[in-house]
Amino acid sequence: MARRSQQTDPEQLRTRLVELLVDFEEKLSADNLRAQVQELIPAHYLLRDLGSSLVPIDITSARDRILFYLKKYPQTMISGEELMVVAGIGEWARRVRELRVQLGWRIITGVTVAEMAAVEDCEKDDRVLEQMAPDDYMLLDTEPDRDAAYRWNVANDLRKNTELGIRDKILAYLRENVGKQVTGDELRYVAGDKTEWARRVRELRTEYGWAVVTKQTGMPELPIGTYMLELDRQSPPHDRTIPDSIRREVLKRDGYQCAACEWNIDDYNRADPRILELHHKQHHADGGGNTEENLVTLCNICHDELHASKK
Description:
Largest sheet: 3 strands, antiparallel
Strand content: 5-15%
Number of strands: 8
Structural class: mainly alpha
Helix content: 40-55%
Distance between the termini: 73 Å
Strand order of the largest sheet: 1-3-2
Oligomer: single chain
Radius of gyration: 25 Å
């Protein structure tokens, strides 16, 4: 059974570690490999103990030490090596996964962020995402998701469903969580950890007309690395061909506000069935282009009313 790290006074541990390393000079000069390895075993354990002892002594489990460290530095890129140190165990990555997928802590990983950034049109302010290494982590919120247990069960069932393709699994998960923030790591898990998951999410928005938004594509207040399906409906086929870059610029220009009723994205809440859409001033069917000049921001209610009045 693997030895658990033992927390105690960090200074005592440091002193013992220094003594061992000083004594190791004699072993290092001797031609006895096994003796050298055996001499370093206590130092190895002392170093683990020292790392886990840097956090409060009453936080005794590796998972809780990792959570303490992440909560101390929210929305900050944290390397896996840092978490390894405070965890004091070799299986620290599994504990991060437990925090994320079972207990509902919004922790994004460098692997998922890289796959998301590869298909999303990130703005310059978000280029920091490209600096995240695969073994980097970021805690997005200092409070856990209270629906975590339910979401975990839904995600697990969809992941195991052999009758659905990756895109349909992701869509089903988003539709189970309309109006809620879901992380890219959740969607990646639902997709069976397939690297194409981010491309399938983008297709749902740009080809199939589902109102899936991100920080870069319609809802700037969303945390990095998260998605939200605003409403459980698809946009009309002629509105699905607007490039994300154009969509973002029009929304910015109009202040994320409906030009008709002045409903603003800041007023968004799950009880209000409104979202922001783009309307072609000259209908797409009549030759109107997907240009900033030909597009205006409307809420879906005003958009529907405008189209109904012209029938």
